[in-house]
Write a structure and sequence with these properties.
The chain is mainly α. It is 71% helix and 0% strand. It has a domain at 7-169.
Length: 403
C-alpha cells in the first residue's frame, strides 16, 4: 500500500499512533514502539514485493559505506577517497534512473524502491558533513532509524542527520501538545490539498483539457494545461509533504517544512526559497556552494559572476537529471539555471544604471505575476508536452515523477 494513498491508510496509521500519543502524554518517547511502528509500516508499503529486498540491501550497503568512511575520516581526509565514497553512495540511484534508458522494455530496476532518491540525499549529506568534520561519529542505530524514518521515506522532506539526531537523543519536548496540534492541522491541510483540490484539478481541468487537446489542439489548450498542471503538481506534492510532516510532528519530530507559499514569490530566487525547500537547500549547500568553493580554491577563476553561474548550472542541471534521464526534466533544470543567471544579471544591470524601482504593492504584484508565469512555463517543460501537436498524451503525463 502506497503511503498516504487513500483514507484507509490513515485509519491504520491513526490506530497505530494512539499508543505512541498516549506514551508521549506521559512524557515517554517509547523508542521501542517507534521502531516496531516503523518496521510495520515499511512492511505495509514494501512487503511482498522485490522492493523490500532492495530497501534492505540499500540500507546495509549505505550503512557499511558510511561507517567505513567515518573510520577512514578519523585518520585521513584525502579528496579522492571522499569522491569515491560519494559516487558509491549515489551508485544505486544512478542505476535506477538509468535503467529505463538501458532497458526500455523493462524500465523498473530491481534496485529501485519508492523514495530511493530521498534516502540517497540523506546518505550523501552524511558523507559530506563527515568530510567537513561537522559529523564526528555516526552511531548505527541512530543512522538506520534516520534512514528508514517511515513518515518521510516516500515523499520527503529531506532531513539532515545532525538535526534529526539532536531531536532523537533529546528528551520529549515539553510542548508536545502544541506539536501534536500542528501535526493534526498539517494532516487535515494535506487532505484538503491532495484529496480535494488536486483531485478536482485532475478530474475537472486536466481531464477536460486532455479531451479538448485531442479534438482541437491549440495554443489555448496548451496554456490552460500549463496552469492546470502546475497547480496540480503543487497541491498533490505539497499535500504528500504535509502528511509526512504532520505524522512526524505527532511522533515528536519537527521535520523541516517543504513549501512556503511558493506562488507568492517575488523573483526566481525567492521561489526556490519557497518551493521544495529541503531539496533546493540541499542542492544549494551540497552542490552550488561547494562548486563555487572548489573553483576558488583551485584558482580557476576569481570572477564571482562566472563562479555563481557555474554553480547555478551545476546544481540546477543535476536537479534536472535527478528527476529523470529524460529530455524534458533535463531542459527543466537548465531552464531554471538560466532564470537564476538572468535574475542576477538583472540585479547587476539595475545597480549599474542606478535604477530604483518603487517598492509598493503594484511593483510587488507585478514581480509576483512575472515570476508566477516564468515558473509555470517551467512546469510546462517539466510535463514533457511543450508542443501542442502531441497534447493528446496530456492526461497520461500529468502525474508526479517517480521519486
Amino acid at each position: 500500500m502506497a503511503p498516504y494513498s487513500d483514507p484507509f491508510y490513515f485509519v491504520l496509521l491513526g490506530i497505530a499512533l494512539i499508543p505512541l500519543v498516549i506514551a508521549h502524554s506521559f512524557g515517554k518517547k517509547w523508542m521501542g514502539y517507534q521502531v516496531v511502528l516503523t518496521i510495520a509500516f515499511l512492511w505495509l508499503t514494501f512487503g511482498g514485493t522485490v522492493s523490500i529486498y532492495a530497501l534492505l540491501a540499500f540500507g546495509v550497503f549505505e550503512t557499511l559505506l558510511i561507517k567505513a568512511y567515518e573510520h577512514y575520516r578519523k585518520k585521513s581526509n584525502a579528496t579522492w577517497v571522499f569522491v569515491i565514497a560519494v559516487l558509491l553512495s549515489i551508485f544505486p540511484l544512478v542505476i535506477v534512473k538509468g535503467t529505463p534508458l538501458l532497458n526500455p522494455a523493462h524500465p523498473e530496476s530491481i534496485l529501485g524502491f519508492l523514495g530511493i532518491s530521498y534516502v540517497t540525499f540523506k546518505t550523501v549529506g552524511v558523507i559530506i558533513e563527515t568530510r567537513d568534520g561537522l559529523i564526528k561519529d555516526v552511531p548505527i542505530r541512530e543512522f538506520v532509524y534516520f534512514l528508514y524514518f517511515y513518515p518521510t521515506i516516500s515523499s520527503g522532506p529531506i532531513d539532515r542527520f545532525r538535526r534529526f539526531r539532536k531531536e532523537l537523543e533529546a528528551p520529549l519536548r515539553a510542548d508536545y501538545d502544541v506539536l501534536f496540534g500542528k501535526g493534526l492541522f498539517y494532516i487535515f491541510l494535506g487532505f484538503l490539498y491532495n484529496f480535494i483540490i488536486a483531485h478536482e484539478i485532475d478530474n475537472l481541468a486536466l481531464h477536460r483539457l486532455a479531451i479538448m487537446a485531442t479534438l482541437h489542439p491549440s495554443w489555448l489548450t496548451m496554456i490552460g494545461s500549463m496552469y492546470a498542471y502546475g497547480l496540480y503538481l503543487f497541491f498533490n506534492f505539497a499535500g504528500y509533504s504535509l502528511f509526512a510532516i504532520g505524522v512526524s510532528y505527532i511522533m515528536g519530530y519537527e521535520m523541516p517544512m517543504n513549501f512556503n507559499k511558493p506562488f507568492l514569490a517575488k523573483n526566481i530566487k525567492d521561489f526556490w526559497n519557497r518551493w521544495h525547500m529541503t531539496l533546493s537547500f540541499w542542492f544549494r549547500d551540497f552542490v552550488a556552494m561547494r562548486v563555487a568553493k572548489w573553483i576558488m580554491v583551485k584558482g580557476w577563476s576569481r570572477n564571482m559572476v562566472l563562479i555563481a553561474n557555474v554553480g547555478y548550472l551545476t546544481s540546477m542541471g543535476l536537479m534536472g537529471f535527478w528527476h529523470g534521464l529524460t529530455w524534458y526534466y533535463i531542459v527543466y533544470g537548465f531552464y531554471h539555471a538560466g532564470l537564476l543567471i538572468a535574475y542576477d544579471a538583472w540585479l547587476r544591470f539595475k545597480k549599474k544604471r542606478k535604477w530604483k524601482i518603487p517598492d509598493n504593492r503594484w511593483a510587488r504584484a507585478l514581480s509576483i505575476v512575472i515570476t508566477f508565469n516564468l515558473v509555470f512555463i517551467g512546469f510546462l517543460i517539466f510535463s514533457g508536452i511543450p508542443n501542442y501537436a502531441i497534447m493528446h498524451a496530456l492526461h497520461m503525463r500529468m502525474q508526479l515523477p517517480n521519486f
